[in-house]
Structures are given as C-alpha cells and as structure tokens.
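Example 3.2
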Amino acid sequence: MLILASASPRRRELLAQAGFNFTVESADVDESQRDGEEPVAYVLRLAVEKAQAVFARDPTHRGTTAMDGAPGLGEDGPLVVLGADTIVVLDDEILGKPVDGADAMQMLRRLSGRTHQVLTGVAAVTRAGTVSGVETTEVAFAPIPDAELAAYCATDEPLDKAGAYGIQGYAARWIPRIDGDYFNVMGLPIACTAKLIEEANKAG
C-alpha cells in the first residue's frame, strides 16, 4: 500500500500518470529552515519528516482519498509512505512561495535572465526504515518582459508555487532550457521516486 504524504495536486497527478495506485494524506510539519541549514539538507529533511509524520499516525484514523493509477502498481507489499518537498534556489538562497503579487514580482525579477536550481527531496518510509534522495535540475530563465511579468503577477498562479512559477504554466514562455529532470521542476522526479518506492518495498 502506498500513501502520498502531500496535498500537492501536481504530485498527485504525476504519481497517478506514472501508474501508481495510492492514497493521499497530507502531512503537517514545521517547514522553517534551521540556522545554517543548507538547501539540500533542508529539502531532504522536510521530505523525510513529512513521510515519517504520516507513517507514525494510527492507521485506523487515516481518512485517505483514493487516487487510482494503473492496476498492480502500489497495491501489494508493505505500507510505504512517500514524502516530498520542492524548493527553488538562487545564489544558495531558498525562494519559497510568495505571499502576494508584489513578492512574486520581486522573486521573478531576481530569476529573470539567470539560471537557478530546483531541488526536490523524496523519502519513502516503511517499517524497515527510510530511503531518500534529492534530485536537482538547473533551470534557465530568459529576461522577462515587464508587461508579461506584471500580467502574470496580477493573477493567482504564482502564489502557491516555490519561486513564484510553475514550469507547466504561463512561465514556460520564459524557460528556454533546463538541465535535468523536467518532472522534478513540477514537484516530483518520477524516475527517482519510482526507484525509491521499489527500494522501500524490498526493504519493507
């Protein structure tokens, strides 16, 4: 049995498209960055803590919502809880979700014309322990025209996304190239995730 410890609709969609049967239960953990904590350590810690928090709950009080994928994937074997967290990093600084349109505009002006990193920590927890990893993708932004930036930041689209953009949305017009996993930028590196789930199933 597979549980996704995330309320992200993008992660649910990607995991289902990859053929996994799973249920969803969001994790409630403190996402504050610790003093001196590097981005890789931070995103990996959050992924692990989210997965472990859901795994530790009483299984009779899960209240999950089923998300069906292809038959046979994720149905059998031990309980596996999957946690993930995605961050945008520029100059070793984590850019979180903007609080409003003005904050989104400030973030995107910093990203404009530069290359940044998108990191996703992924963790799979079973009774046997935790397997985890971090996927990194380099994302190049073209210079963003002022009119397009203003129009975009006047919408709600950037508000629920790290770095104020989603590669699958309006901001795609500003991204001429990436180096790495495209799905990682969406929030869940599928190949990495599938490998960790396989390892967790064998260990559990």
